[in-house]
Amino acid sequence: MTKKLFAEKFMKAVFLICACVSIIAVAIICFFMFVRGIPAMREIGFVEFLFGEKWRPTAQIPKFGILPMIMGSIYVTAGAIIIGVPIGLLTAIFLAKFCPKKLYKLLMPPINLMAGIPSIIYGFFGMVVLVPLTRTLFGGDGNSILTASLLLGIMILPTIVGLSESALKAVPESYYEGAVALGATHERAVATVIFPAAKSGIMAAVILGIGRAIGETMAVIMVAGNQPRMPKGILKGVRTLTSNIVTEMGYAEGLHYEALIATAVVLFVFILILNVLFSIVSNKAAPISFKRKKVKKEEA
Amino acid sequence: MAVKFSVSNLDLYYGDFQALKNINIRMNENEVTAFIGPSGCGKSTLLKSLNRMNDLVEGCKITGTVLLDNVDIYKNMEITELRKNVGMVFQKPNPFPMSIYDNIAYGPRTHGIKRKSQLDEIVETSLKQASIWEEVKDRLKKSALGLSGGQQQRLCIARALAVKPEVILMDEPTSALDPISTMKIEELCFDLKKEYTIIIVTHNMQQATRISDKTAFFLHGEIVEFGETGQIFAMPKDKRTEDYITGRFG
Amino acid sequence: MKSSWKTFKAHPMSLVFFILVCAGVILTVGILFLVVAFVLIRGVPYLTPDLFALEYTSENCSMLPAIVSTIEMVGISLLVAVPLGVFCAIYLVEYAGKGNKLVKLIRVTTETLSGIPSIVYGLFGMLLFVRALGWGYSLLAGSFTVAIMILPLIIRSTEEALKAVDDSYREGSFGLGAGKLRTVFVIVLPSAMNGILAGIILAIGRVIGETAALMYTAGTVAAYPKSVFDSSRTLSLHMYSLSREGMHMNEAAATGVVLLIVVFLLNSFASFVAKKLKSKT
């Protein structure tokens, strides 16, 4: 009996320790990033690092300004949102409110597959299809903000579609009925009642999409040109925070190496901010469903 | 009195299940017609065929004719036009998650009214007609979801009135409400019938006697008896009606 | 599911909206097919036996070593992440009390982990496993890095699977005098197996598709790893290296075909398992 009791206690402790692994992991990641990154930032100078427009790590007098990369990430992500969000939301609306059941069964597997395709495949597609395409259509050498935005816009589609579809589906049917009973067409009811009612969930989807776009690395490297300079126009090449790390990590040493870690710290902070935004927005989405549940209970 | 709705030989199927069998009924202008009967008898189904809400149900098939002012609503009327003329209030109050003002303005905006002054006027008169103006006039920009259940239902009535319908369908509008809210809504029906035709589905037989002019008793998808409310409750012609209203089943 | 044409005639804006929505879905599905079709058309003709030669040389670009090291990497990372993730989920669902502050912290950190970009993982893996622990560019360093990456996925899917197990099972087991531990392992875990499995399959997909986190942890050597401390590139990294060199685009495309097929199979398997789960409950 005591042996059994011991096993119970022991395993409970094991479970507890395992449960803490994600806390430990985040702590260690933060520790390693900040311990290596912050001193580098201090050495370079915070302002110089964050707002310096020149990145010349191997010059005789090295310059470590990552503003070009910050701007690059922001431009490319904004482009991805401009391209991906409208298409993704329209797709989600179709799937949630216009799609006949049979077609839905047919469409869902490929859309799920889209989320599973490795970014290297998207990158390859971008490199051999989108780059030449933008080159012939708009000139330049094709490796550009535009190409990267297009590719990232495609890559965030599954995130946007998946989350906003479930947000749209969670809107109570009674709102829809109320709207059509007033003489709204199906389309109008969807656009003016259901869509606004799902806006918190949709916002969450967009924020997650931003996170995806800002964190994507390999696909961006293959199409963005990677020149470490301030963005000069959407047909010109650009370097993002992520590609800055990957392109130079292989050979960087000393302060250069630390500066790359500091770049990752900046990226990490961006992601943390997005995470906080995401949980605020999805908490805002939660009370509605909570209220619904409560009403249902009262009925019963 | 003029006939508003005229239903003849209506059969309605949900898939293989026949929910309504050979319905024939006429409803007059400026009267309150009540549909009563046990659950699942088809009274709500008939109500929903009057503004074609059944179209939303998958596998629903309807044969027969429904005439609104002598126009066949299934063949010769565009659906949004029909629903503009035939408003509906649901069992559970369903205000949109927007401000009170936007809730009322939703219908008029849908039908092309954009001018602010005109919308303001419609909002005020509709809320007054639904006797909820005094309670909400200072919080028109606040969310409608903050109102009490009874207020929400009156708001929904005001929302239906705002598109200036000719007929208002009410699907057990008080079943989710407390007695005081119920009373307010019943009083409202009484006032509204001067200008509108009202058709109300109710579980509550006292409610039918209090507010309706005519009553139809439904059983198993058929209309068993239809006539003046006073007559139906005082001396029903059919044994089944009598059994139901005296509480022997249902 | 849409208005009739008669209604559209009266409400042209609704028709416009309908057309836009249709255009959206056609575009999404079209893009997907374009990507897939392109990789297939470009790659299938070059899917030669040479590509699967036993040894990698810079001429044949064999992907066999990469396939082997991918499998090893999947194996090791699952070995690390699955027990940790499943046990964590067991704690969250079966043991933790409601409103527990620790649980809240675990939730927040798990969410944070799932949002961290893979390159940050890569950098972290490099700092900790490659340098601080001195494992060098190695299979082990790469596996541990991706193991942390897939941890949130496994925790979440297991948590959902455990929550879906009906409480009456647990009560039945307790009623027969079984302890909590026995109940969890004999009753709850087996009934949640399919859900957990679906999560694991998705995690495998993540590992196979990963590049950025592995570049500076597992390294890019194109040979069989002799031990876990050897550097070796996975299939995705192999494809990346080939396409970056510019000389072997055809072989890169062919590698892409193999990757796509694997991902497709994994996805189908995951949805098959998930469907089985649904039909059971």
Quick take:
Helix content of chain A is 80%, strand content 1%. Chain A has helices at 2-19, 21-44, 46-51, 67-98, 101-116, 119-138, 145-155, 157-169, 173-181, 186-197, 199-215, 218-223, 241-249, 254-299, and strands at residues 55-56, 63-64. In chain B, the strands form two sheets. Chain B has a six-stranded mixed β-sheet with strand order 6-7-8-3-9-10, with helices on both faces.
What does this structure look like?
The complex is a heterotrimer of chains A (300), B (250) and C (281). Chain A is mainly alpha-helical and 300 residues long. Chain A has 14 helices and 2 strands. Chain A has helices at 2-19, 21-44, 46-51, 67-98, 101-116, 119-138, 145-155, 157-169, 173-181, 186-197, 199-215, 218-223, 241-249, 254-299; strands at residues 55-56, 63-64. In chain A, helix 2 packs across helix 14, helix 11 (199-215) runs antiparallel to helix 14 and helix 13 (241-249) packs across helix 14 (254-299). Chain A is globular. Chain A starts with a helix and ends with a helix. By secondary structure, chain B is of the alpha/beta class. Chain B has a single domain, classed as P-loop containing nucleotide triphosphate hydrolases (Rossmann fold), CATH 3.40.50. Chain B contains 10 helices and 10 strands. Chain B has helices at residues 43-50, 79-85, 100-110, 116-129, 133-136, 149-161, 179-192, 205-211, 229-234, 239-245; strands spanning 3-14, 17-28, 32-36, 60-68, 71-72, 86-89, 167-171, 197-201, 214-219, 222-228. In chain B, strands 6-7-8-3-9-10 form a 6-stranded mixed sheet, with helices on both faces. The radius of gyration of chain B is 18 Å and the shape is globular. Chain B starts with a strand and ends in a 5-residue tail after the last helix. The relative contact order of chain B is 0.18. The mean pLDDT of chain B is 92. Chain C is mainly α. Chain C has 2 domains: 2-46; 49-280, MetI-like fold (Orthogonal Bundle), CATH 1.10.3720.10. Chain C is 75% helix and 0% strand. Chain C has 11 helices and no strands. In chain C, 48% of the residues are buried. The model of chain C has no long low-confidence stretch (mean pLDDT 88). Chains A and C meet through helix 1, helix 2, helix 4, helix 5 and helix 6 of A and helix 2, helix 3, helix 4, helix 5 and helix 6 of C.
